[in-house]
Design a protein that fits this description.
Chains B, C: GO terms for molecular function: glycerone kinase activity. The complex is a heterotetramer, with 2 copies of chain A and 2 copies of chain B. By secondary structure, chain A is mostly helical. In chain A, 65% of the residues lie in helices and 0% in strands. The longest helix of chain A has 29 residues. Chain B is α/β, with parallel strands linked by helices. In chain B, the strands form 2 sheets. Chain B has a 6-stranded mixed beta sheet, sandwiched between helices. In chain B, strands 9-8-7-12-10-11 form a 6-stranded mixed beta sheet, sandwiched between helices. In chain B, helix 3 links the parallel strand 5 and strand 6. In chain B, helix 2 crosses helix 3 and helix 4 runs antiparallel to helix 5. Chain B is globular, with a radius of gyration of 19 Å. Classes of the chains: A mainly alpha, B alpha/beta. At the B-C interface, helix 1, helix 6, helix 7 and strand 11 of B face helix 1, helix 6, helix 7 and strand 11 of C. The complex binds adenosine-5'-diphosphate (ADP) (2 copies) and magnesium ion (4 copies). One magnesium ion sits at the interface of chains B and A.
Chain lengths: 196, 331, 331, 196
């Protein structure tokens, strides 16, 4: 069982925000051939809002922290990624103060994402990163390789949800942008040392 | 990128401000949101509110359709990005006068999810909300297992029909039934001569050579189904009408409304020529549309191109709805 | 040249056909001419007819303004070429119901001469005809010894004012006096980001670099007064308002109507942003326009750019005329 | 006194039409920097209509011939050149059958042009070609040099009428397109041998 604390969670979010800022243009470029070219700006707008909402704040518990994160994402990102990332943090907020087990938290987040977006594994969405990562966290075996493999696995998939689905077979050969940003989320989580 | 803007990050905010300040008789903005609602509050009393919206960049959609007889509110997101649930919710609350609110959503993951979340919020407030997800773009293969088709210019007809019915006192359930019945009768398909440039991106969504066109593009520069050499207007019409005919068998004994929609940078001169060829093509099939509209109604920023919507008027009352008077900026 | 057309030689003919067949409720075409007249004949009975027109390429001008409450007829010439007197005369004859016909002419040698000849022809038929020559473009230096200024987007306000007055029964002499009084109050100036491409020419009227704009261009790609690097919208507004202020001292104690006019390829997004900056600029001068209109009203085919018209409402009744209801395709 | 006959006039018009057809693009190019780039197409449209109206027709006199020419020009050219050239031929038609003296005919035509367009010599319009040419015809001394000099004289003028006037000083350095087409008209007249 891997416990998450408010401090670690804040570190996690800082790392995620930094990664998004660093890769903003790259994420939008990924979103260009198979989407509408805005995933980087969407996420950057969202994480800027998240940082404004949590920076220098003292949160009593994970519940308050995650709720603030969720509200910032939901009200600032828009598009597909806003409700999805927002829902993920909202579901974690719901569990937050009773249950700080990372496996449980991420499990609830993924269930929320799947309910909100209706995507299943294999549909070439961020669900394809979250599913193996959450499995690995629950099994106590999350590594950077698990994350990277999950992100790369979306390259050969045919999109069935999101804008990329309009391309059908022609979506093959491109990484899914939401999966790449989710990869940064979990890379940032590993970097906190929470699994060490 | 050559545009009349200031900071690319502020285009939506400045544009909405320009719009409501220029047209205070029709619209106002809920402060600090992208929600544009009717100024004529009396016209909404006792009626079901109709709220639409989506990413910006489709002007005059959607604020241009807000006014008596059409939308009650339109929520604008960032360019090509769905608005957020809190802003949609603000519009719902503002236009609800007790009879509930009907949402017109275009079928994009983002729009569907954000409008759904807003609906959840409104229901917590006991505001009855129903919605329709418009998916008129036949360029995309449809399937139960995918996102399905995009919502594009045909959405404007949905606004008009529902707005007229709501103004005449239709209930939320009646609007829901009407929307469900109308939806499968609206089919749209587009051809692009050039892609849109999102201000924050700074370059076109795709590149077409000087003599190339692309059939089946979406309103966010989503790629289409075929690229080829530029054709005469007649041939473009034949291709687009042919595709619609494959979907929705066009016959002389039915009534149709058509929308020839410019994508933003295509002048009316070309749209009227296209219409001339369209009416000839339909004429050869024994069809004379009962209603025609030509202009920039659902654009894709500065994309050059045209979309064609054919709406089968399965119920004769729909024609009355289309002709029903409205007070809006852009219908 | 990438356009949705068939044969460049037929663009006007096909465009007019597409227009009248698409909007039979508003307009019809006098066969074998470029004269477009009102379908609603009853609305013209006993009223003075108003006929405008000019070269094509300015769509929706001028046929888009034909209808009850506005123009009785609009005569379309070839692209950027004044219509011929016989066609103007055909329109005059068709809309005269005994009260005479008033002509709205833009100040180009060609238009002035062709409309004059048509007037001569009508007078031979005992149809009383008067006319106004609109010259609102302040980019051009005015002088008694020259052609004077061009007629551009402000002409649309002239149509609206005269159309409303005619519909309310003004006589030919009253319309003449009204037009003379209105004219010096309308001032327009434009900025271009790119020039128009006349279909039969096949290339733009002038070339601007990727980062260049030109102030003071006309609606036929006539060169302007200054070329410079692309500026933010705010700066464009400052330049254009400044020029108008030089001509027509803008003061807080007067009422104004403004028209922000897209040149054809400039999306509404940019026009609304420009409007936002315009209203700020005027606001700083203590001015809040009493009437605003934003959109493609007097285009130059596919030119990118915007023109700004400021119309001083020297008579409060003019505002009522601007707000007077019309039944047209494009006002 | 130089007499014009129907046959010579038809030759003249054929020569003019041929010159316009040959220089259509050049005339439009001249009209581009200081006008709207359509003078060539306008004139070509007009002369095609003129040829359709007179080709193979038997005209009883100059009056009928010039009237047909005028109507074709007036109803097909449009723009500034249509009424101007149309008026010129209409005025000649008015004199036609009583007076076939070229000097008188062209004098009446020029008066019509000046009345219609309001341009004076020096305004950089076709009046600057017609004025010296008509003088020379009346003096019995029209040569190609008179025509060429007149056309070239427009180059250094500041336009005060027509579209070029919007440019003010910047119109200097460009030939006036209507003057060039009028040059072709008089070159075609000389080529009929009427002055020989
Ligand atoms: N229905 C869905 N379920 C799960 N993820 C989705 C869904 N639709 C889209 N996504 C994810 O969202 C990403 C796109 O996000 P973004 O570009 O920000 O939004 P938009 O597509 O509205 O422009 C995709 O790469 C994909 O991973
Ligand atoms: N007022 C005028 N008087 C005499 N000639 C004129 C006048 N206005 C224009 N022109 C002549 O007409 C020519 C332009 O003709 P054209 O290009 O066919 O018409 P437009 O200017 O309407 O496009 C000019 O070069 C000039 O010689
Ligand atoms: Mg995207
Ligand atoms: Mg988007
Ligand atoms: Mg011209
Ligand atoms: Mg010209």
């Amino acid at each position: 069982m891997t416990k998450l604390t408010v401090t670690t969670a804040q570190q996690w979010l800082d790392g995620f925000a930094a990664a998004i800022a660093a890769h903003k243009d790259y994420l939008s470029e990924l979103d260009t051939p198979i989407g509408d070219g805005d995933h980087g700006s969407n996420m950057a707008r969202g994480l800027t809002a998240v940082q404004a909402a949590i920076d220098g704040q003292d949160f009593a518990g994970l519940k308050d922290l995650f709720k603030a994160v969720a509200m910032a994402l939901i009200s600032k990102v828009g598009g597909a990624s806003g409700p999805l990332y927002g829902t993920a943090f909202l579901e974690m907020a719901k569990l937050g103060d009773q249950d700080a087990d990372l496996g449980h938290l991420l499990d609830a987040a993924l269930a929320g994402i799947r309910k909100r977006g209706g995507a299943a594994p294999g549909d070439k969405t961020l669900v394809d990163v979250w599913t193996p990562v959450v499995e690995a966290v629950k099994a106590g075996s999350l590594t950077q390789t698990v994350v990277d493999d999950a992100v790369n696995s979306t390259k050969d998939m045919v999109a069935r949800k999101g804008r990329a689905s309009y391309l059908g077979e022609r979506s093959v050969g491109h990484l899914d942008p939401g999966s790449v940003s989710s990869g940064y989320l979990f890379t940032a989580l590993i970097a906190t040392g929470v699994f060490a | 990128m050559k545009k009349i803007i200031n900071d690319p990050a502020n285009v939506v905010d400045e544009m909405l401000d320009g719009l409501v300040r220029g047209y205070p008789q029709y619209v106002e903005r809920i402060p600090n949101t992208g929600a544009i609602i009717r100024s004529n509050k009396a016209s909404m009393q006792g009626k079901v509110g109709i709220v639409s919206g989506g990413g910006s960049g489709h002007e005059p959609a959607h604020p241009g359709y807000v006014g008596k007889g059409m939308l009650s509110g339109a929520v604008a997101g960032q360019v090509f990005t769905s608005p957020t649930p809190d802003q949609i919710y603000a519009a719902i609350k503002a236009v609800n006068t007790g009879s509930g609110v009907f949402l017109v959503v275009k079928n994009y993951s983002g729009d569907v999810m954000n409008f759904d979340m807003a609906k959840d919020m409104a229901e917590l407030d006991d505001i009855p909300v129903k919605s329709i997800v418009v998916d008129d773009d036949i360029a995309v293969k449809d399937s139960l297992y995918t996102q399905g088709r995009r919502g594009v210019a045909g959405t404007v007809f949905m606004h008009k029909i529902l707005g007229a019915a709501a103004d005449q006192g239709a209930t939320l359930d009646e609007l829901d039934a009407l929307a469900q019945k109308v939806l499968p009768n609206i089919k749209t398909i587009a051809v692009a001569l050039s892609a849109a440039t999102v201000p924050e991106v700074g370059k076109p969504g795709f590149e077409l050579a000087d003599d190339e066109i692309e059939y089946g593009v979406g309103i966010h520069s989503e790629p289409g189904y075929r690229r080829e050499k530029l054709q005469p207007s007649k041939a473009l019409v034949a291709e687009l009408v042919g595709k619609i005919d494959d979907e929705q068998h066009l016959t002389a004994d039915k009534q149709y409304a058509v929308l020839v929609n410019g994508m933003g940078a295509t002048p009316l001169m070309e749209q009227y020529i296209f219409t001339h060829d369209l009416l000839n093509n339909l004429g050869d099939r024994g069809i004379k549309p009962a209603f025609t509209k030509i202009g920039n109604y659902m654009t894709s920023i500065d994309m050059a191109g045209i979309s064609l919507t054919i709406f089968e008027l399965a119920d004769p009352q729909w024609l009355d709805y289309l002709n029903y008077p409205v007070e809006t900026i852009a219908w």
